[in-house]
Amino acid sequence: MKIMTSNIYATQGYVIFKNFFKENELLKLEYILEKFHNVWLSNNQKDYKNGLINSHSITSSSYINEEERLFIFKFISKRNIEKIVGEIFPDEALFLNTQLFFEPFNRNQHNYWHRDIQYTGRSINEQKQKIKTENIVHFRIPLRRELGIELIPSTHKEWDTDEEFETRLSLNGRKPSDNLQRGKIIQMDRGDLLVFSANMIHRGLYGNNRLTFDIIFCDNTQDFKSFLNINDCPNTEEMESLKESKIFKKYII
Fold first, then answer.
1. pLDDT tens per residue, range 32-89
2. Neighbours of 88 (CB within 10 A)
3. CA 53 centroid distance within chain
């Protein structure tokens, strides 16, 4: 499995694992995330109505309690997740953050093609080089059957075609929501796991009242550490409950 997973990811930039989680693994996670989401919506109505489609930093939020926070850390450090992290990262991986993706307030809101790296402030030339050497990966866990995500396979290491570049950046009359010839839709069901590179060209597909939990890992480098909030990571006391975890061993503070 290790060779297959790492080779597939290296080639196409994503791997889909069907029926990866059992129902009893998701029930408490779903309860915690729905609780978080309901409070978040109540406190962020303006941003939600203005188009925001995700929240983040769940483990440092005051919307969940200490027991729920520890449960999320234990979920993230499940052996089957750790195994995949070890397979697709050539060197040591760093847990960066969590995100929750949901439906836009305006059901007619358009989705958008992007690479996460385009929001880092780096020049286009820097982006072209960095996608070849930097790894930032989403572990996407849908809590409901959803339309999924659309990807351009292999663009985690390859740059855009002219059409893709113009679409992402709204050039020459194109819009980020326009269809792209190489787009591949990955539909997901509850219990599935999608592992994909945030560097690749992708867009979320809205619909079906989606609620999707993303765990984000990256290379353990100084560049990525500048984006890390240590409050999102386990403290010394929590590490006692996670001492078998390879993912969190570097966060003892």
1. 999 999 999 999 999 999 999 999 999 999 999 999 999 999 999 999 999 999 999 9
2. 20
3. 13
Which of 57-73 are b and which e, b meaning 16 or more Cβ less than 10 Å from the residue's Cβ? ebbebebbeeebbbbbb
Separation of alpha carbons 200 and 14, rounded Å: 9
**What span, in angstroms and rounded, lies between the C-alpha atoms of 1 and 6?**
8
How many distinct structural domains can be found in the chain? 1
Q: What is the pLDDT of residue 199?
A: 97
Q: What is the CATH number of the domain that holds 32?
A: 2.60.120.620
Give the range of the structural domain holding residue 6, as residue numbers without chain letter: 2-251
C-alpha closest to that of 158 among 2, 4, 5, 12: 12
Could you give the 3-state DSSP secondary structure of residue 166? Answer: helix
Q: CA 245 → CA 74, 121, 252, distances in Å?
A: 9, 33, 12
This prediction's pTM: 0.95
